[in-house]
């Protein structure tokens, strides 16, 4: 009994212990189960698993600790790390992730997670590493992230996060790395997050966002900071000096902002570890501090390129022994290149291009044995290039173009440059012969010797340059070897199978094309052999060059006939054979080159008819057949070229009547049919050529009157009808041609009065010489016009003038004064009615308020002027700054333009469309009150020297434009076609966000109709080809958008002089499509840029998209929804 009593307490302890163990086991099981449930919730939110791993591996049949990507603690079995990076997962991040209470590392990077980050993420209090980069997350950064007090690394870069950077980030006491790179964050950089609580921060990446304002001085408190990148934001103001006191800094990158001011004189006093100083593309000014030499570890100095630095280059920079890269290009630096640069034994890149540096190239540069890239383009350098530079065997690129360098190239130039890929010395004053040894530089890809004074022969061994893609030695004094009449160097070049561009123009070559000409590289895209005194015939073998896009053989001494084999060149866009002695007829085979945009056959001895098949060349924009011996009537199909811009058939023997179909050439700018044998009447359909600027019909046999419809050709600047048999009076309608500067109707049979209104006030007697019975003002040197009077009426007129008229006049004046006083009183009391075409929600603005807002429409408030109206800046009574567009009611179509803008803009709402505030309208006054855009037009930013847009800024703007068109075409209830898209109609707000405006000729398509015929013409150069034949307008916006893409990134207007008589902007880019540096704006790409390859590829993608937009057939064009998607993908790629 006693024994049992003794065992009872012991049994109780055993039972209690068993109970505790059971409870503890259950608790552990339940907590482990919460981890599993959190993982299953994540799996449920994944909509696509490209590898199918989670679907098969994450199964309840096995412990979640054995699941793919999961790591658990060995002691308590709780999940501590989850890594699902780079698995191609799509979906969202569920709030249940917060239940992973022991989670220390979460890596979901390189996937396609979208939507917002759950606010509950802040409950993962053990989290030390957070990797969400390279996803598609949106929304703002959760404030709850500030609760993660143990967080050491946070990577949220390369997403679509928006909003401000939360102030709560200052609570992250353990944070070492913060990367928010490549998002859409806005607002300013919060100064509060840089207090002493972030003292452990080592790396900070806030680049490629939309952050504005200044750089907080508090950044100077980050005493352990090593890497600091604020690249590509909208930061302004000076760089705080406190940043240059952080002695641990290794990299500073503030590229592509609007930072201003000077660099501190003592910039490097406290930066002993600095390796990279990158401040390019800002507005920094003044001189470079000599103190830079104290940054002894500096390897990359790119603080100066694309800024406004002046003065000379400090010689102290030559004391930086570890310096590898110097980018000081595109400033206003003066002085000379410091000889001390020769001490930089580690230097690989020296870029001083586009400055005002003078003097000689110092011989000490020849000591830079590690140098790979030397760029001194566009300076004022003179003298001889030190021969030692051509002995640096590691050199890959030598760019010395556009200076005043002289002397001969060393005869041994090819002996010591085994790695050279690019030699550009064009635009200098080099002379002597081209050394034969240049053919030994076997890796050479691009050789440009153009615009110098080289003489003698072209080396016959250039064919040894088997990798050569671009060869240019135009504009020199090179000739052929007299031992043969053939241009033998061309035979040698047949071994260069990668050759794409051959530019040898403006040399006295004087030889003949060899038969081997057709054996040149099939990769050849462009040949310019103009003005070379080349003799003989064009080889028929030229038809073998199947990829040729541009062929210029103009201004030579070629004879024979046009080879029919040219018709085999299906990709040919430009053919120039003008200025030769070619005879025979124009072969119909040319019509097989359906992509021809420019055909120039002027000044030859061609005869026969104009081929009727020319009407099938729908891409043709320039056709010059003048100064030949062409005869016969013009085939009617020629007048169907709706996309033609320039047509010159002058100085031939063409005859017949001008048909009404001439009015079909809706886009034509210049038409010259002079010095032919045309007869009959001038067709009134000429009045339909709304874009015509120059028209010459002189020296023909035309008769009859000048059509009244000429007054409708509103763009006309020059009209020559001289030396015909035209009769009748000069129509009054010509007074409406406000742009007409030159008029010649001499040597005709005109009669009647010479007009005095409109442009006639500027014409002289030279415009009207030798007509039958013209009369007018004495300055025209014609007889005065007679006044018709009768004797019977003289007395009555006298009585009327003396008695009756004064009485009537007095009565009218009194009545008029009374009416004016009444109206003035009413005007002060009753505001002018807001146009009824706008919704009643728009605020009412009176004419009186607009007068006050614009200081009575003063010149000081003027911000823009066009044919349809004038735009003023004004401040309304409520203090709002607005743009007031006052329509010119004397301009034909202004009423319709006002109605069109009201109709289109009254309901549309989009962040990238100009917002209408109100309107003001009565019988004699019509105005729109619009949102004011302080940064004015895109055109101003593209072509003004005071402004600069970098690559990402231009891409963002074009995404904005495309988004606006996407909304108009696809998301508005009735599709809207803008019809007038061009840089001048794209306005930028204070944040440089683009807004499309000016809907004066827009079309509102009824119902769901997305395609409609129109006769409305868009802007010259941006018009789709189908406009001329009343084409489909809904895709014409896409075409205009494509032209704008080309213009924005090439910084070339489609109406530029280089596209008159040469390729169009589109065909020019197409011909150079794979060589970005040949057409892209030089401010956008820099070969020394470490991200050059990525940027180059992105530009190529943009150009490819632009060419898809500008497909000839409307059906082949991409739609704007796809354009927006493609551009955004390019932006992501660019910002990675």
From TrEMBL:
ATP binds at residue 885. SUPFAM superfamilies: L domain-like, Protein kinase-like (PK-like), RNI-like. This is non-specific serine/threonine protein kinase. Keywords: ATP-binding, Cell membrane, Glycoprotein, Kinase, Leucine-rich repeat, Membrane, Nucleotide-binding, Phosphoprotein, Receptor, Repeat, Serine/threonine-protein kinase, Signal, Transferase, Transmembrane, Transmembrane helix. PROSITE patterns: PROTEIN_KINASE_ATP, PROTEIN_KINASE_DOM, PROTEIN_KINASE_ST. Residues 857-1132 form the Protein kinase domain. One of its GO terms (cellular component) is plasma membrane. It comes from the Eukaryota. SMART domains: LRR_SD22, LRR_TYP, S_TKc. Pfam families: LRR_1, LRR_14, LRR_8, LRRNT_2, PK_Tyr_Ser-Thr. It catalyses: L-seryl-[protein] + ATP = O-phospho-L-seryl-[protein] + ADP + H(+); L-threonyl-[protein] + ATP = O-phospho-L-threonyl-[protein] + ADP + H(+). The chain crosses the membrane at residues 799-822. It is an enzyme of class 2 (transferase). It is found in: Cell membrane; Membrane. GO terms for biological process: hormone-mediated signaling pathway. Its EC number is 2.7.11.1. One of its GO terms (molecular function) is ATP binding. Belongs to the protein kinase superfamily. Ser/Thr protein kinase family. It comes from Vitis vinifera. The keyword Lyase does not apply. It is a single-pass membrane protein; Single-pass type I membrane protein.
